[in-house]
Amino acid sequence: MTLPKPVLYPPFNIVRLSHVELAVTDLAKSRAFYVDTLGLQVTDEDKDTIYLRALEERGHHCIVLRKSGQAEARDLGFKVYSEEDLDKAEHFFKGKGLPVEWVERPYQSRTFRTHDPHGIPLEFYSKMERLPPIHQKYALYKGVKPLRIDHFNCFSPNVDESVAFYNEIGFRVTEYTEDNETGKLWAAWTHRKGGVHDIAFTNGKGPRLHHVAFWVPTPLNIIDLLDLMATTGWVGNIERGPGRHGISNAFFLYVRDPDNHRIEIYCSDYQTVDPDLEPIRWDLKDPQRQTLWGAPAPRSWFEEGSTFANAKVREPELAAQPIIAP
Ligand SMILES: [Fe+2]
Questions:
Q1: 8 Å CB contact between 152 and 20
Q2: What is the reported pLDDT for 304?
């Protein structure tokens, strides 16, 4: 597989990933997880919905928890630079034959929703209500001290197709995993904001949301979270880690929320703003790819994910197997 050439002047300009809505079955339990355990800040709530932001964030929300009869992932939100970019984005998606529906979203200005060619629901906006900074209100720092949403990772039934589509709208590949036998992509990490990724794709039954990640100040915050979860009834929700990724070089931990939505705690990847940054290639069979220290991920990590609302899930076209923990 030859990676597509980066599109440095895309048809519209995305700043970064912004937020996601997760449908949850028990709002009180979800609040105990996201607020009391992880330490996200409530910016608004009522009996059906909780809006959250992380400590560095000035926008109103990065996660919306919505009470529902069924747990699922809803729109992945992206912020564009300007209203003009939003109009250009509408034109782009319509040109691809993808639906564009303008929707009302509290705390966001004009917002449209669409989906990618595999069915991942997406929404785009340019302005969200701005809140006063709290990053130096240290009395608010609790749990894992989450600073900002960092990335989405999605299962894709065809990673080459996902990369081709997101590349066209300006996402640049920083690292990728190739299956040696077929030359096809097994996973790819793509960014807009200058880190290793805003959205990554992993080969698997999809489309499904694999995880949402939050950036934290130091690896020690991850150790503190593990101690907290292990002694407050959440030990069964610790899935993988802590460790250091080979890909991205970030320190990580994966935990599951009360509905099994997967959250990654993530720290210390690297800067990727150079337009001529060379993507790093990994072999699927390299044991240091997942974890630099060599420990493979458990089977659940490769098989379980959150379905997206109204997205038809299909088997992946590539059958290549990663290394799975015994
Ligand atoms: Fe991740």
A1: yes
A2: 98
The answer to whether residue 172 scores a pLDDT higher than 70 is yes
Query: For residue 156, which amino acid is it?
Result: S
Distance, CA 173 to ligand 1 centroid (Å)? 14
Burial (0-12, 13-18, 19+ Cβ within 10 Å), 19 = buried
Q: Confidence band (pLDDT; 50, 70, 90) for 56?
A: very high
Domain boundaries of the chain, sorted by first residue? 14-128, 143-307
Pick the CATH number of 14-128 from 3.90.580.10, 3.10.180.10, 3.30.70.1050, 3.40.50.620: 3.10.180.10
pLDDT in tens, 63-110: 999 999 999 999 999 999 999 999 999 999 999 999 999 999 999 999
pLDDT of residue 176: 98
Residue 309 has pLDDT above 70, yes or no: yes
Distance (Å) from CA 24 to ligand 1 centroid: 21
Tell me if the domain spanning 143-307 has CATH number 3.10.180.10: yes
Q: Which residues surround ligand 1, an ion (CB under 5 A)?
A: 153, 213, 264
- What separation in angstroms does the CA of 322 have from each of 8, 107, 183, 202, 289? 32, 41, 15, 11, 10
- Listed in sequence order, the residues at least 6 apart from 255 whose beta carbon sits closer than 8 Å to its beta carbon are 225, 229, 234, 237, 238, 239, 262, 263, 265
The pLDDT value given to residue 211? 98
Q: Give the integer Cα–Cα distance in Å for 54 and 309.
A: 25
